[in-house]
Write a structure and sequence with these properties.
single chain; alpha+beta; 2 domains; 4 strands; PHA_reg_PhaR; Polyhydroxyalkanoate synthesis repressor PhaR; PHB_accumulat
């Protein structure tokens, strides 16, 4: 069941899960996201991929209820990158950062059964190195010279 699941969105705004042959809600799509199930949402009229729009709709609902993840200042900063020369670099930076955060969270959960202090120290050192590399990439993309750093072994 690792194959990509196809959801069709019809003009009546309903979502149809082709794998289970039934209509689903945005909450069901959110559950797919939370379970890590790969999927795509296609517009039934022309088969265009509208997955991003559906995910943004889910995020909007999440942000509207409870404690929001994004502050107004953070959203304004993200908006400022649209159309700028660093838009692609910023998108890769954010995606890499979120991937790193998720991996670190999984690793931390597994490793806390061992020596938690040693684990936290190791992860912190690794994070500093990765963030420094990401920062260097961002600075290079912006046209700033970046001095080579010595890697710890």
């Amino acid at each position: 069941m690792n194959s990509e699941r196809i959801i069709k969105k019809y003009p009546n705004r309903r979502l149809y899960d082709t794998e289970v042959s039934r209509y689903i809600t945005l909450a069901d799509v959110r559950d797919l996201v939370m379970s890590g199930q790969p999927f795509r949402v296609l517009d039934s009229a022309n088969d265009s991929d509208i997955t991003r729009a559906i995910l943004l709709q889910i995020m909007l609902e999440e942000e509207s209820g409870g404690a929001p993840l994004f502050s107004a200042n953070m959203l304004a900063q993200v908006i400022r990158f649209y159309g700028g020369t660093l838009q692609g670099t910023f998108a890769r930076y954010l995606e890499s950062s979120l991937d790193l955060f998720a991996k670190q969270q999984q690793e931390m959960t597994k490793a806390l059964t061992d020596n938690p202090f040693e684990t936290v120290t190791r992860l912190t050192q690794k994070n500093v190195e990765i963030w420094a590399d990401l920062q260097d990439e961002l600075m290079r993309a912006a046209g700033f010279p970046v001095a080579p750093r010595k890697k710890k072994e």
